[in-house]
């Protein structure tokens, strides 16, 4: 049975919000999607009928394995599309999110499997987020926020938690791209802004940016 555009948006929200115990609240979904809680309740009752969630009044939702897989497959379409736009159509990483939002609702599995093949089965999207495989499996990453690092450390820029075009343009201007090695020179006590070294260049980046940038050691 094909999922509707609205159902896919809810599934994607579940993917992003579910905690380590497989739980998410109606309130969290409502805020994330900008949808009133009665509408979220009605949709989750439908999801419960499809065995995607366990729905009990006044309790957090339990996302089932089937629900997690369906959600991951929507995210797979989005992230594959972003990678295709960057690698094969030469879009900047800051320009692909909105286009992928539209194309992720195409229902042809063959279309996205072919896209995957053309890209030689990438594991990560242009923003460093893992791409679920065709069975909904996803690679676990051991990353931390740049803000959690200390002066003197050298780390590798691995991912971002926000793919907003304004933020990505901010990174472009500082030549701060994925897989860049970052040496932390100084952290300001006053505002926690960070002086970093990228190659032979030094940049000062805001606390807000260091909260969004994910790195690996």
UniProtKB/TrEMBL annotation:
**Where does the protein end up?**
Cytoplasm
> PROSITE patterns given for it?
HTH_DTXR (PS50944)
User: Residues in domain HTH dtxR-type?
Assistant: 1-64
Keywords from the named record? Activator, Cytoplasm, DNA-binding, Manganese, Repressor, Transcription, Transcription regulation
Pfam families linked to this entry: Fe_dep_repr_C, Fe_dep_repress, FeoA
Q: What is its main location?
A: cytoplasm
User: Which InterPro entries does the protein's record reference?
Assistant: DtxR_MntR_Metal-Reg, Fe-transptr_FeoA-like, Fe_dep_repressor, Fe_dep_repressor_sf, FeoA_core_dom, HTH_DTXR, Iron_dep_repressor, WH-like_DNA-bd_sf
Superkingdom of origin? Bacteria
What does the subunit comment say? Homodimer.
Q: Which family is this protein grouped under?
A: Belongs to the DtxR/MntR family.
Q: Give the protein's function.
A: In the presence of manganese, represses expression of mntH and mntS. Up-regulates expression of mntP.
Its name, as the record gives it, is Transcriptional regulator MntR
- Species of origin: Chryseobacterium pyrolae
């Amino acid at each position: 049975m094909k999922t509707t555009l609205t159902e896919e948006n809810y599934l994607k929200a579940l993917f992003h919000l579910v905690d380590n115990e497989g739980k998410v609240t109606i309130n969290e979904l409502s805020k994330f999607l900008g949808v009133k809680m009665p509408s979220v309740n009605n949709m989750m009752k439908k999801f419960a009928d499809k065995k995607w969630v366990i729905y009990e009044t006044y309790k957090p939702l339990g996302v089932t394995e089937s629900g997690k897989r369906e959600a991951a497959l929507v995210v797979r379409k989005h992230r594959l599309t972003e990678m295709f736009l960057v690698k094969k159509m030469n879009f900047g990483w800051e320009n692909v999110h909105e286009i992928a939002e539209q194309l992720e609702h195409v229902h042809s599995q063959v279309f996205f499997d072919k896209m995957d093949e053309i890209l030689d089965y990438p594991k990560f999207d242009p923003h460093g987020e893992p791409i679920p495989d065709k069975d909904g499996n996803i690679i676990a990453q051991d990353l931390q926020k740049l803000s959690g690092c200390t002066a003197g450390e050298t780390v590798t820029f691995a991912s971002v938690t926000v793919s907003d075009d304004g933020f990505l343009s901010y990174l472009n201007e500082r030549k701060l791209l994925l897989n860049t090695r970052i040496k932390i020179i100084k952290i300001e006590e006053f505002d926690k802004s960070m002086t970093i070294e990228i190659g032979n260049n030094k940049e000062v980046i805001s606390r807000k940016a260091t909260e969004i940038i994910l790195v690996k050691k």
